[in-house]
Design a protein that fits this description.
60% of the residues lie in helices and 0% in strands. By secondary structure, it is mainly α. Helix 2 packs across helix 5 and helix 3 packs across helix 4. InterPro entries: Cyt_P450, Cyt_P450_sf, Cytochrome_P450_3A. Keywords: Heme, Iron, Metal-binding, Monooxygenase, Oxidoreductase. Belongs to the cytochrome P450 family.
């Protein structure tokens, strides 16, 4: 022990960000030891700490007129967050396909769900259903009993 003070809020915040990045995207960002602020951290903070004016305006539009909200295209989150995470996720998926990697994370669960949906609907996209990379999905017989089918989109 060095006897130095530790700022617990920053330490726990860094740990939380590392856990989220690992569990959701299978990435390692090491925010505690990396003293520069990465784009991932900046955009993830925007997700969790939205702009007060944006939240306020969204709440007003929802209560006044949901049609106006839809017509204006106003979003709850800052659009820059989507502009960052969409290409990032696409790059992670491309890397997994090229390196034939299968992770244990939320993104992999979404890929598996997409594969199952493709099998159920018999609309197979060869790039989305690469069992060598993403693993085998459950048999369609066990899933045909499920009445509630939903669509998963990339957006």
């Amino acid at each position: 022990m060095t006897g130095e003070d530790v700022e617990m809020k920053k330490t726990m915040g860094s740990l939380t960000m590392d856990v989220i990045a690992s569990c959701a995207f299978g990435t390692k960002i090491d925010t505690y030891n990396d003293h520069k602020t990465s784009e991932f951290i900046v955009n993830a903070k925007k997700v969790f700490h939205g702009s007060p004016w944006r939240i306020w305006l969204f709440g007003i539009l929802v209560n006044i007129s949901p049609k106006l909200l839809k017509w204006t295209g106003f979003q709850f989150m800052d659009p820059s967050v989507e502009k960052f995470f969409t290409p990032a996720i696409t790059a992670i998926l491309a890397k997994r396909k090229s390196e034939k990697v299968r992770q244990r994370d939320y993104l992999q669960l979404m890929i598996d769900a997409q594969n199952r949906m493709n099998i159920d609907n018999e609309e197979l996209d060869v790039d989305d259903l690469d069992e060598e990379i993403y693993g085998k999905t459950e048999s369609t017989d066990s899933m045909n009993n499920n009445q509630n089918k939903s669509n998963i989109s990339k957006s």
